[in-house]
Every structure is written in structure tokens, then in C-alpha cells.
Amino acid sequence: MTETLLLVGGGKMGAALLGGWIDRGYDAAAITVVELFAETAKNIAKQYGVTVVGSADALAVGLEPATVVFAVKPQSMDDTVPAYASFAGGDTVFLSIAAGKTIAYFEGNLGPGAAIVRAMSNTPAAVGRGISVACANGRTAQDQKNRCHELLEAVGEVAWIDDEGLMDAVTAVSGSGPAYVFLLAECLAQAGIEAGLAPDLSERLARATVAGSGEMLHQAEEAASGLRANVISPGGTTAAALEILMGENGLQELMTKAVEAAAKRSRELAG
Length: 271
Description:
This protein is 47% helix and 14% strand. By secondary structure, it is of the alpha/beta class. It has 2 domains: 5-171, NAD(P)-binding Rossmann-like Domain (Rossmann fold, 3-Layer(aba) Sandwich), CATH 3.40.50.720; 177-269, ProC C-terminal domain-like (ProC C-terminal domain-like fold, Orthogonal Bundle). An 8-stranded mixed beta sheet has the order 3-2-1-4-5-6-7-8, with helices on both faces. Strand 1 (5-8), helix 1 and strand 2 form a beta-alpha-beta unit. The chain is elongated. The two termini are 37 Å apart. 32% of the residues are buried.
């Protein structure tokens, strides 16, 4: 694939996307990365063979990217986005994976004529198992949406929504969700240690259990509730544990509060 891509931000998510694109056959010579930090920029250029510059001012004269991808932290957007307004219009589409920053925000900084897709991805994109949810503004043509879909699909599943207001909930569930799963693994390992297991063994058991269960969920057509039920024997050890986890003030109540807190913070980041 030879369409010209401009990736702004080469951090964890930016690098995950870049790696997915290269693996999918995108031409490294057609990709330019803007990365502020010199060491990160050096590593990206060496690993992926793409052009890396330190700022928008250093971009090649006459560059006309088909897609500009913003993969910088929300707090850095105000200092980043306006520099790319000159690319708005024509066939260029802007794709943002920053939490909290709305389509209206990008229209205000890039101009009302900009084609904009707002997406929320997550860190399993680094191993090709992420999921992204995207929505587009009215200026975005179907071929531009298709282009963004292909870029996001390089690192996992893609879903589209029409109601941008749902993005805060999406952020709270799938954007932040990997951290919840990692915390579960941490807590399970610590509980094993307190039950008498050696730390190395307990961590190994927790890691393998969470990873293996996730793979079962990925492959199964059955709902998570059904998979859970398949593990339970009446009156057995799993049933005893789930009485605690599913009881009053249990996991569901905590998870609901956590998602509400994350969604609230996403709205705050929107300003």
C-alpha cells in the first residue's frame, strides 16, 4: 500500500499502529512520523525504516498526506493540532486516537472543512489484538472512512458508532479496560501469595490464567457469563469464591463505579 501517511506521535499507541501498518504491507517510504523526543525518533526510524522528523516545521515541502493520524496525549493536543491545519480540505482525513478530544475540538483547530475521524483504541493493539471504536464528522466521505478503518484494523477489531456522545463510555470500557484486567492479574497473584504460594509461582499462575481465559473468551461464541458458568460446580471451590466476588459490594459494583469514574474523566478531558 503506497498512500501517504503522516503519524503525529510515536509513543506506545503510535508505535503499535505503525508496527501494524508495516506488517500489513504499508510502504515505509510513504510514512512520515513526527516525534518530539529524539531517542524515540531514532528508535522508530531504525526499527521501521520510516522518515522521522522532530516537528511539523520539519516536514518535507509539498507533502500531501492522505491521512494524518494524531497519536499524542490529550494534554499535548493544544500545542500540536493547529500546526497541521494546512492539510485540511481536499482528500486528507484526520484520524485521532486521543481520549476526550471531540470532533468539535478538531474542527475548531483544523477548520470546518476538515474531514475528521475520532477513534478510541487500546493497548492490546501492540500485539494485534486491540479494538477501536470510531465516529466521523459530516465532512468525511465513505472512502476516507474506509481508509481509517483499514489503518485501525491493522491492530485489531474496529466498530463504528454514529453517536459521538458514547465515546466517553467506550473510553471507560475498552480504552482503560486493559488496566482493569492487569489489576485483576495483580490481585489474583497477591491473593495466591497470601494463601501460601511462592511469589514467582503465584504470578505465573495468575498471568497464565488471565491470558488463557482471555483467549478462550476471544475464540468462544458463548457469552462470558456462559463460560463462567461452565467453570462452576455446585458447592465447589469456584462457587465459594464467586459468592464473594458477586456478593454485595462485589466486583460488579466496583466495576460500574470504575467505569463511571473513567467516563467522567474523559468528559473532563474534552474541556
